[in-house]
Specification:
single chain, globular, 3 helices, mainly beta, five-stranded mixed sheet, Immunoglobulin-like, Glucose Permease (Domain IIA), 324 residues
Length: 324
């Protein structure tokens, strides 16, 4: 089993010119469809936190960017982690299980919070680090030279990871750098044209990860695992339930959940979120009461995340009610 020490360097960010150093996405997916950015580098020097767009998608002291996949089922299917720039492998670690971070695993991951990962050295004093890779997936060795886009491993949940993702840190001469604002000139009042990205990812201020339909209120672990939704139900199913799984929600946001079927609307309900959530899910449903069966046909579940007067994101799913 291959192992090498990986140190997560913590330091205060300072301005750094991008020059000819450019980054490509470190994950083989389509942002906004089958993956998303859960958290950005913390730009608040105090005890609070703020992302580069002055939003809430970060936490105090976060030193990188988290590219997440929707569920553990998506992780299990295999999503590649890619070198964001060409360089030389300075170190790696593999062999840590994808148990994620809980109170039960805290002691086991202490000092190895990055989990399975890779550090690449690039010209000009630049480094990129890729954390939380899937156990057994690391595909490089120390000293190896790789090009941008080379497969380093796969997205996992090893180390201090509460959801499947790859955490990418960028450093220059050991100092963390925000790839969305490497020169450090960005403020809440003024945008910055500086970026390390060859094609800068669009900023999403939160959104929906998944929507699904089933016959009972699912437990949160099943939702995060990607095992809650179904494609078909029998007409005598005890209930019809729609759930929405979201990220980056803020206090006051509304989750609107709706089910429609062959005879029109089954249920529609708004739920107001009372605090900020890195991830959250809500569900509503209707029991089979006063009738023997649900009409056969296609049912559509819709989730909308609403902030103020604007719909941040809308997603839908379908289910067929029929006799098998």
């Amino acid at each position: 089993m291959r192992r090498a020490a990986l140190a997560l360097i913590l330091s205060s960010a300072c301005p750094a010119q991008a020059e000819d150093f450019l980054l490509w996405l470190p994950i083989d997916c389509t942002l906004g469809q089958d993956c998303y950015i859960q958290q950005y580098m913390d730009r608040d020097p105090g005890e609070g936190h703020s992302d580069y767009a002055c939003g809430t998608l970060s936490y105090d002291g976060h030193k990188g960017t988290d590219f997440a996949v929707p569920t553990r089922a998506a992780m299990a299917a295999g999503i590649n982690v890619l070198a964001a720039a060409g360089g030389r492998v300075r170190g790696y670690r593999d062999g840590m299980p994808d148990t994620g971070w809980t109170e039960e695993t805290r002691d086991a991951v202490e000092g190895r919070e990055c989990g399975n990962g890779v550090v690449l050295a690039h010209p000009g004093g630049w480094e990129t680090q890729y954390c939380h890779l899937r156990e057994g997936s690391v595909a490089v060795i120390t000293g190896q030279t790789v090009r941008a886009g080379y497969v380093l491993g796969q997205v996992g949940q090893s180390g201090r990871a509460e959801f499947p993702h790859v955490h990418m840190s960028v450093r220059r001469n050991g100092v963390p750098v925000d790839p969305f604002d490497p020169d450090g000139t960005l403020t809440c009042e003024a945008s910055s044209e500086s970026t390390l990205w060859a094609e800068a990812p669009a900023y999403r201020p939160g959104g929906l990860v998944e929507v699904g339909l089933t016959d009972a209120i699912p437990d949160y672990d099943s939702v995060k695992a990607g095992l809650a939704g179904v494609d078909m139900l029998r007409p005598d199913a005890p209930a019809l339930v729609v759930y929405g799984f979201s990220f980056g929600t803020r206090a006051g946001d509304v989750m609107r959940l709706t089910i429609t079927g062959p005879e029109g609307e089954v249920i529609s309900r708004d739920t107001r979120l009372e605090r900020n959530h890195a991830q959250a899910f809500r569900a509503v449903g209707k029991r089979l009461r006063g009738r023997r069966v649900w009409p056969e046909g296609v049912y559509r579940g819709v989730a909308e995340l609403i902030r103020g007067e604007a719909v941040v994101e809308r997603r839908e799913a379908e289910i067929t009610v029929a006799v098998e």
